[in-house]
Structure formats: C-alpha cells, structure tokens
Amino acid sequence: MNRYQKILNKHYKKIFHYSGKLIALFGIIALLPLLVIAFYPEEIKYFLAFFIPAIIAIIFGIIISKINESKEEVTLSLKEGGLIVVFSWILAIIISAIPFITGLGMSITQSIFEAVSGWTTTGLTVVNESETPNIFLIWRSLMQYFGGIGLVVVMLSSILHPGGFTLYKAEGRSDKLLPNVKKSTQMIINIYFGFTIGGIILYILAGMNLFDAINHTMAALSTGGFSTKTASIGYWNNYKVEIVTWLLMIVGATNFATLYVLMKFKIKTYLRNGEIQLLFLLLAISTPLFVYFTAFPLLNEISEAWRHGIFQAITALSTTGFATLPMQEINYFGIMIIILLMLIGGGTGSTAGGIKLYRIFLIFRSLLWEIKRQFLPKNIVKKPYFGRGENKVYIKDEYIRETSNYIFIYLFTFVAGVLIFLAHGYNLQESMFEYASAQGTVGLSIGITSPGAPAGILWTMIAGMFLGRLEFMIIIYSIVKVVKDIKYSIISN
Hints:
By secondary structure, this protein is mostly helical.
C-alpha cells in the first residue's frame, strides 16, 4: 500500500466515524415522536413503526463510529465534509421513510418523497393531513425542524470536532457567529430554540391549540410548511395566526448571523445587511403587484387582497410553502410572481432554500458597480462591498465567478426538471410552478403533488429537493471525489 493510499484510508475512516455519529444522533431524534403517545394513547399501535428503525439507526451509527475511531488528527477537505453530509442525510431519509411504509402502508416512493420533503424543509406532501395520525404529523414537523437547523449543527453544538468548520460549511453554512464553530453552533441552537418557544406561545395566544402550535412553529421557523390541516394556514382564517406566521417565516429566512446582530439590538447594522435590504425590497415590489393583478380580482375586497397578498409573497420568498389561497385559483400573473420568488429564496445560512438572496444581491451589486466604474476617473480606486452579519463583504472576482456558476447550475437543473414534467404531459405553467417549488424547497403545490402522482414525477422532485437543500456543488464535489478515489484504488491494486 503506497503513501497516498494510506492517507486515503485515514481520511475515509474519519468520514465513516463522523457519519456514524450523525446517524446515531438521527436515531435519537427518531424516538421523539413516541412522546406523542402519552397524549394520544390510542396511537400506541404505531410504537414499533418508529422504535425499531430508531434503535437500528442508533446501534448502526455507534458501531460505524467506534469501528472507525482514531486518535490521529485528520484535517478533512470540504469535499470530504460533503461526503459525510450526503451519506448521513441519505441514510436518515431511508430510515425516516420506514414508519410511513410500516405504519401507514405507503409505497416506497411515496415514503421516500415524504421523508425527503421533511428533511429538506420543502413541505410538499402525498398524505392527507385530515386522515393522518398525530404521531406522523409530529414526525413530519420534527424532520423539518431538525432538517432546517441541520444535523451537523446539532452535533457540533455538543461536541467540538477537529473538522468542525469543514462539516459546518458542507451543510451550507459559512458564517461564524462567535470565534469558534462550537460556540457558533451553540448560539444558533439557542436562537432557534428561543424563537421556537416564542412562536408556540404566540400561536396559542392567536387561537391555536398546543399540538397545532408546536407543529406550525417548527414548520414556519424551519421554512418547511408542513401543516396539520389540508387547507394549511388558511384553515384558521385568522389574521392573528397569519401575522405570527409572517414573523416566523421571515425569521426562518434570515441568516443566523444577521439574527444575532438583531438580537444584540444593532439595528443600523441589521438594516445595512444586503440580504435584508433585498428581502424587503422584493416584498415591497412583489406584494402590491400580486395584490393588484391577482388577489383583488380573485377576492374583490381590498383589505382581504392585501392580507392574502402579503402572506403569499412572504411564504414564497421565504420558501416556507404555507398557503391561505388555493394555488389552483391564482391567475397566470400571480403564478409567475410566485415562481420568481421561489427561485430567489431566502438568506444564506438560514433555513430557507432557493438560489439565495446573497447570490442575487452579489450579482446585482457587481452589475451596478461595473456600470458605475465606467463613469469614474481612472485614478480612483474603490472596492465595492455590502453588509453581511456584522461584517463587510468586499466583492471579489472569485465570488462573482462562484455565484455565476451556481446560478447557472441551479437554472440548468430547473429547466431539466421542467422538461421532465412536460414529457409527462403537464403544461408549462404547472411544470414550472411545481418544480420551482420542489427545487427551491418551498412546498406550494398547484395540484400535481398527490398520492396519485406518477413515480417519475415524484422521483424528479425528490432529486430537486435534495439538490436544492444541499446546494448542488457539495453533492457534485462528493460524487466526483468518490468516483476518483474508487478509480485510484482499483488502479493501485
């Protein structure tokens, strides 16, 4: 065995070691729905549907972690961190699907779809909420809650790993709230949990019962959108419930570093943040347009039009997917507005999906800077920047290149997904809307997503949700690395 092969083996032992820890952590999370049985004892019949896969995950994770344990320090690359995230997420999704198969008798495709929709915080569903037992409703919400914060963040908040920042970045986060990763992840957990308690209290005060308040807080804060009601938030027809949901969705779509700034009452710094400026600008533009051209013609009452218009703009841009209006009744103009907002999405390092506000803002600022530079004297040297968290981000060529590449891949994948929908016989409007919702991890549906949807469509959306949540490049890097390492091992042997 040559030197490179030995190094490779050390790195893969560390990859499996961390993956085992994540899988064991997932197994513990999978036991949480069983707490519901204390309040709904008639659902004891579903105990084994959750207990068995959870215990299997815990035992399997511990074994994998212990077998590959090593005291030797190994610095993991971003691609190797991506392998850990992708591997553990795939196993978590497979195990999460088992209760739907054994407990509800759903098909493998439908069960995988529901699990992926949960963990990726999408919210598209193939179950009928009115007929679904409470233990499965809370399980869907828990998947979104922990999927939004990320398994890696939960793990790193309790144990400091040498490869901590690599894992942190591999799950789509890059901002440090505090000097080291462990303290940063602990602060993220504290912020997330604090808003969770606040959301539950506000929902109860607004008129929800405790069970619904817990589920909807987890779904709104994770920008997931799973509801306990078939009509989603529209079931309550209560402006107080909707206002609480607005607040939680905006919080969920905001970068945690920016939330940390707000919690320190640095209002000016918060408002100078580029993502926040763009978020409110997009809402300020899209809401009146949606109200005037879509909501008012549909509802014929200006106050109701504004109420629903604001809600639909926030739920689409934050990629939450709650609804107060049936998407099937919205006109072409409104559908296009929602599609554009779903494609843009929320903040980087938040629980939201989409291309992300940071990337859109970066490209927009660089374009303005290029135009402005043409009119400046040649001897003037300025560096364009914008606020992000508490820091200034100077626009570099490498940032623009990375962002442009990401947006190209995102839109290329979107077009490919739409073509698959078209090949199944759906029209362009339906195809664009449904796949934008899946890839942006939004959860709004125009009616295609259902138990009767073709398997090809469900698997296309599964791929879109997974790619959208784990941000494309990490998955691509991980696949390429595995293929290269396998090829090298075969050649060297």
